[in-house]
Amino acid sequence: MSHDTTTELPAGRAPARPAGRTPEHTPALPAGRAAEQAPALPAGRSPEHTPERAPDRPTGRHRQTCPVAHTSLDPHPAYPPRPSYPPRTPHAPAVDRAEARKFTEDFHRETGAAAALEDRWQEIARQIDTTGTYVHTGAELTWGARVAWRNSARCIGRLYWNSLVVRDRREVHGTDDIAAECFQHLRATWRGGRIRPTITVFAPDAPGRRGPRIWNEQLIRYAGYVHPDGTLAGDGRNTGITTYATELGWHGRGGRFDVLPLIVDSPHEGVRWYPLPSDAVREVAIGHPEIPEVADLGLRWHAVPAISNMRLEIGGISYGAAPFNGWYLETEIGARNLVDADRYNVLPLLAHLMGLDMSSERTLWRDRALVELNRAVLHSFDAAGATITDHHVESERFLRHLRREEDAGRVCPADWSWIVPPVSGGLTPVYHRYYDEADLRPAFVLDEDGARRARGETPGVPRLP
Ligand code: ARG
């Protein structure tokens, strides 16, 4: 969806807020990880899933204007930066030589460069001896990031792992420049709606020198506000980081879909926040192909899921800031984000609007509304020209990926509870088998520090008076 085709929901017609959620319902989902993805789910269902289009605009009374508030691109100098988040291990240890060796061997073997292995290893070993770490070549970094995706057991969308676009930004250090690169990442991945899986890699940790971090779990997330009466506005998953952003000086509008600022942490500059520029945030208004009133619910979602709090580990080197994105699988939005009771909880509203008999669970009103919501998500992304996949296609693709990996003589790790879609699981072929659960490297890792930052937890960070 391009900027000018983004649809806007009818102004001033926002329906009643989703039924109030109380703070104690605030979620504890595995922090999503795409290949990304990663949160205690109902019945063994994967909290998040990693990762195409049709006719006209979403049905409903839409206007073709950008629904995103235009905000300043600058950081907010009026607010002093906060001290950096104190990690449990302030200084990265020296690189583990065995891990570096294993990676270097795998890289040279798989990329057909076996003859160059020992020369390169001599160089790496020398760097580790003198500095405690080593510097990946551009080719090593690219291959390492792609294989980290390939190894992501929770991601159903790995068929295209080898085409991940890697933006090497290891030389970018300042928080202003890091934020600007994240915004540029979002613009670059968009391509008029033909989203391309992309990662931007910032400086790694090194002995005595920690690299930068991004606090947000994704580059684009909606704020969640708990009102004094205990009701929730916005995304209940993000209430912690919303509170933290507010303490930093950000002023949310208290709406249901306020995009949070990007919070960047560098050991030299501390923590600073940056509003996302409107041209970096593509959103899709949700309408239904046959039920025009669905548009009146005022639902929307951002088109690009870009995980930003997972570490990328390659050959013993840890990249703490390496945001990456694929494209959405419709169930992520239509069966989790808008549906979880502690998030947008829209099924009761939708079922009511559909006139379903909600007198008993046995009428399966939730299930019927759920299917229609997933149709609405697919329909709306298609109408906006924004890449999205569905759980039937993606399940077939995943099994194709699995066969390719086996043909290449490799293990393909997969976590059943994340791979099986949260809608119509048994209808998809991925449901009817078991998987290898190997923990392979390179990898995307969600460590406790990253998960806590994304929840807005600030142990050891002094509060402003
Ligand atoms: N489940 C997360 C969300 O709904 C996104 C995780 C990554 N997903 C992906 N398709 N790459 O925002």
TrEMBL record:
InterPro entries: NOS (IPR050607), NOS_dom_1 (IPR044943), NOS_dom_2 (IPR044940), NOS_dom_3 (IPR044944), NOS_N (IPR004030), NOS_N_sf (IPR036119). PROSITE patterns: NOS. Residues 46-59 have a biased composition (Basic and acidic residues). It comes from Yinghuangia aomiensis. The keyword Oxidoreductase applies. Residues 154-161 form the Nitric oxide synthase (NOS) domain. This is Nitric oxide synthase oxygenase. Residues 77-90 have a biased composition (Pro residues). Residues 1-94 are annotated as: Disordered. Residues 10-21 have a biased composition (Low complexity). Keywords: Heme, Iron, Metal-binding, Oxidoreductase.
